[in-house]
TrEMBL record:
One of its GO terms (cellular component) is cytoplasm. Signal peptide: none annotated. Residues 241-488 form the PPM-type phosphatase domain. Residues 742-752 have a biased composition (Low complexity). This is PHLP1 phosphatase. InterPro entries: Leu-rich_rpt, Leu-rich_rpt_typical-subtyp, LRR_dom_sf, LRR_domain-containing, PPM-type-like_dom_sf, PPM-type_phosphatase-like_dom.
Length: 766
């Protein structure tokens, strides 16, 4: 009887259990009909014939297999402009019926069973402006899409498209999403469309772009393509992999941001985040750029999950500065970590959120919420706000600004609105399949149960994130949306892998577990490492043997020949392969275990804030110390040229020494170099002039001294840096030690006559 009411203009009957609509409909004045999320098998046969005023129809998330006709003749009176049919069972037979709606502007038919879209039918939809046909089995988009002169958005991800469509010929095109297809090449016109803002080509493994095409596409404001990855050398399964997507709202403003770092701080950690500014762009961008760095710094101070997460949000509140005074944003962070010091340890997932960005974990196929939204309906929050005498408006907002009582920014509402997050930690198990991070727009459109059920059978994380975003838009979301899906592969032996021949299950893109890692040479303009928020790792090379590493890295000048190192095939190794958590102790070989070969933009291991310092080429970080790779050359050939100006002794001069870490060798004399000897660096060392560069070569100047960190602490002997002499090398080592003693005596004499001979060894404060 509702449809017989001549005054009815809008009927919203979504999210119910309707099995059918009235079969017989007389002339009705309904303009908006929303029947999504029901159990409809079909729509009334005369619905589109009788509803002459219908402009909007959303029948998504039903079980439709066919559409009713819009006309019984060639002439049609339909004024339908928006049609949403996503997530049904529609087939190719429905496509011809669309031509009965010539005024159609928005068409969403994603995640149906379409295999083709006839070109003749597309040609008749001349007023079409936005089309979403993702998640079908289409192999091509008809070339007649060029007839749709007003088309500005084409979304066709997760299909089988092999040929790049003619969308670049459309003058009004703004957004093209062809991700997760089978494209092999891209055909572009000489000039790109002037309004094109976004082109997404990720998830096309066969796609190969030449340099000219890449150069042209890089002019697009938002151009996405897969980055080449070296892969993992061990071939072991990845513990986690992720995919993310973002979509702007109706006002064409992207007010959300996502953060993904597969390798965070070290090889066994990851960080993901989603930030939502509601209607502002500034706050999400600041959170995306800054929050990972703050978290890395807080991890240096405490290992307690709740403490470092709360501190991260509080510090972030302060760093927002003026942008956070009148603007605010929701945020959710998920940190995966593994304690390498605990052989029986597990992966821990810690989630922290403020506002309406939330996380849900899929465990045994069921959703497990890890977040909480603090709004006025929470009794404890309502009580706290009343104590601060804040004004609560009728729509449930604090001073009419925000309905979230815990959110970043909005400092003018303090102390009613605070940035303290809800923190929850959980130990990951083999029953954990994936977790989802989403912005407010996603969770307003999809329940957590539906989101988990929707992507559980999607094997690819990127395709899963795309599907969530597409469904939310088809279900009526007009806000910006961001979704991150992280798929998990936690096995019982992820923590102790002695049974896997010592090869630990890697996270995506982590370094091969080896002691012989060297940072590759980089051009001068490539010294800056990528930000930790980008999730990119430094290139490393494993072309140097363990013996070369022990002799070239982490030691000052020494005349000792490198010790003979045992390789994996040596009989000195036991037959049993062990993992990095249960290493084999070798009593007859020298090893130096490097814990990291990267410099994070968040907080480098040597205590320097990398926002102020450039990473150093040739410098290795090993937790509590810094090791510098240098080349030592004989200096006797240049003695006479260098020794032209008298030198005065000083405590801040060059330290002439053998390896400091060797326990039996005393510290040598110290000198100050002035005049033509060299110039003093900012870190206290002395750099010789160009003609004396053969003394010691360093890739770049050492970092400046700072309060705190490694450079403020006294040098401590490292227990790993000791020589264990095999029996067969005792005689040779004794001879070497004898030579050292003779050199010590000579250098002691040089203290009295410093200008007679130039020292062979230089040890800078670094």
């Amino acid at each position: 009887r509702l449809f017989y009411n001549s005054s009815l203009r809008k009927l919203l009957a979504g999210h119910n259990m309707l099995g059918r609509l009235p079969d017989r409909l007389e002339r009705t004045q309904v303009e908006v009909l929303d029947v999504q999320h029901n159990h409809l098998l079909e729509l009334p046969s005369n619905l589109l014939l009788k509803a002459d005023s219908l402009r909007f129809l959303n029948a998504s998330a039903n079980k439709l297999e066919m559409l009713p006709p819009a006309t019984l003749s060639e002439e049609t009176h339909s004024i339908l402009q928006e049609l949403y049919l996503t997530n049904n069972n529609l087939t190719d037979k429905c496509v011809p019926l669309l031509t009965g709606h010539p005024h159609l502007k928005i068409l969403h038919m994603a995640y149906n069973r379409l295999q083709s879209f006839p070109a003749s039918k597309m040609a008749k939809l001349e007023e079409l402006e936005e089309i979403d046909i993702s998640g079908n089995k289409l192999k091509a988009i008809p070339t007649t899409i060029m007839n749709c002169r007003r088309m500005h958005t084409v979304i066709a991800h997760s299909n089988c498209i092999e040929v790049f469509p003619e969308v670049m010929q459309l003058s009004e095109i703004k957004c093209v999403d062809l991700s997760c297809n089978e494209l092999s090449e891209v055909t572009l016109p000489e000039n790109l469309p002037p309004k094109l803002q976004e082109l997404d080509l990720t998830g096309n493994p066969r796609l190969a772009l030449d340099h000219k095409t890449l150069e042209l596409l890089n002019n697009i404001r938002c151009f996405k393509i897969d980055q080449p990855s070296a892969g993992d050398a061990s071939g072991a399964p990845a513990v986690w992999s992720h995919g993310y997507t973002e979509a702007s709202g109706v006002k064409n403003k992207l007010c959300v941001a996502a953060l993904s770092a597969n390798n965070f701080c070290d090889n066994r950690e990851a960080l993901y985040g989603v930030f939502d500014g509601d209607r502002n762009v500034e706050v999400p961008y600041l959170l995306q750029c800054t929050m990972s760095d703050i978290l890395a710094e807080e991890l240096q101070k405490t290992k307690n999950e709740e403490e470092y997460m709360i501190n991260t949000f509080i510090v972030m509140q302060r760093k927002l500065g003026t942008a956070g005074q009148k603007l605010g944003g929701s945020a959710v962070l998920c940190h995966i970590k593994h304690d390498p010091m605990d052989p029986g340890g597990c992966f821990t997932l810690t989630s922290a959120n403020v506002g309406k960005c939330q996380t849900v974990l899929c465990r045994n196929g069921k959703p497990l919420p890890l977040s909480r939204c603090y709004v006025m309906s929470c009794e404890e929050e309502l009580k706290r706000i009343k104590q601060h005498k804040a004004i609560i408006t009728e729509d449930g907002k604090v001073n009419g600004v925000t309905d979230s009582t815990r959110i970043l920014g909005y400092t003018f509402l303090h102390p009613s609105v605070v940035p303290r997050p809800h923190v929850q930690s959980i130990t990951l198990t083999p029953q954990d399949e994936f977790f989802i991070l989403g912005s407010k727009g996603l969770w307003d459109s999809l329940s957590m149960d539906e989101a988990v059920e929707t992507v559980r059978n999607v094997p690819d994380a990127l395709a899963a994130a795309k599907k969530l975003c597409t469904l939310a838009q088809s279900y009526g979301c007009n806000d910006s949306i961001s979704a991150v899906v992280v798929q998990l592969n936690v096995t019982e032996d992820s923590f102790c892998c002695c049974e896997l021949n010592g090869v630990p299950p890697p996270s995506p893109g982590i370094f091969p577990q080896s002691v012989n890692m060297v940072i590759k040479d980089r051009p001068t303009d490539a010294l800056g490492m990528p930000s930790s928020s980008s999730g990119m790792a430094s290139e490393i090379s494993s072309e140097i043997s363990t013996s070369e590493m022990s002799s070239e890295v982490g030691s000052t000048a020494s005349d000792e020949p490198p010790q003979v190192a045992m390789n994996e095939n040596s009989p000195a190794y036991p037959g049993e392969q062990r993992c990095m958590l249960h290493p084999v102790c070798l009593s007859n070989s020298f090893q130096r275990q490097l814990s990291s070969a990267t410099f994070s933009s968040a907080f480098s291991d040597n205590g320097l804030d990398s926002d102020d310092e450039e990473p150093i080429e040739g410098v290795f970080t090993n937790g509590s110390r810094v090791e510098v790779e240098v080349d030592i050359h004989c200096s006797r050939a240049k003695e006479k040229q260098l020794l032209q100006v008298p030198v005065e002794a000083s405590d801040e001069g060059i330290v002439i020494s053998a390896n400091e870490d060797e326990p039996g060798l005393p510290r040598k004399a110290e000198y100050s170099a002035t005049g033509t000897i060299g110039r003093r660096r900012g870190n206290g060392s002395v750099a010789p002039h160009e003609r004396s560069h053969n003394l010691i070569e360093v890739a770049t100047d050492a970092p400046l001294r700072k309060t705190g960190g490694y450079f403020a602490a006294p040098a401590q002997p490292d227990p790993d840096d000791q020589f264990i002499i095999p029996p067969e090398l005792e005689e040779e080592v004794k001879e070497i030690m004898k030579q050292h003693q003779e050199q010590q005596q000579q250098q002691q004499q040089q203290k009295q006559y410093p200008m007679d001979h130039l020292a062979d060894y230089y040890d800078t404060p670094l």
